[in-house]
Automatic annotation (TrEMBL):
Protein name as it appears in the record: SNG2 protein
Keywords: Membrane, Transmembrane, Transmembrane helix
Annotated organism of origin: Anhinga anhinga
GO annotations of cellular component type: neuromuscular junction; synaptic vesicle membrane
Record-annotated membrane-spanning stretches: 37-59, 71-99
């Protein structure tokens, strides 16, 4: 759910424009990579959650212990990797937000703060999956 919040905040109000121009730019210090990173890990985390949820549903029906072991290790490894990626995302978005000038932010400041906050919360939710 945190991944959906980060993704929707960045897609919904993460891009803005100046009143004198119709060109959109990322609200995080005009750094397109910040918005792309947040959107990318949000989408991939959501899709991975759906995949691992389906694996959990069908897990009792898998009789091969080797397949079970690989699925559990894949879930553990992915959770560890995604914990690290969310930490990087939190640091990156926070850094870019601190360099953003107040005159460039007319709409979307709350969405930017929400994306940063839920990136931080995502670190702990993925750690709990890895443990």
């Amino acid at each position: 759910i945190f991944a959906l919040i980060v993704f929707s905040c960045l897609v919904g109000e993460g891009y803005t424009n100046l009143s004198s121009s119709s060109q959109l730019f990322c609200i995080f210090n005009h750094n397109e990579d910040a918005c792309r990173y947040g959107i990318g890990i949000g989408i991939l985390a959501f899709l991975a959650c759906i995949f691992f949820f389906m694996v959990d549903i069908y897990f009792p029906q898998i009789s091969n212990t080797t397949d079970r072991k690989y699925l559990v290790l894949a879930d553990l490894g992915f959770s560890g990797l995604w914990t690290f990626l969310w930490f990087i995302g939190f640091c990156f978005l926070t850094n870019q937000w601190t360099w953003t000038q107040a005159k460039d932010v007319h709409v979307g400041a709350d969405s930017a703060r929400a994306a940063i906050t839920f990136s931080f919360f995502s670190i702990f939710s993925w750690v709990s999956e890895a443990v």
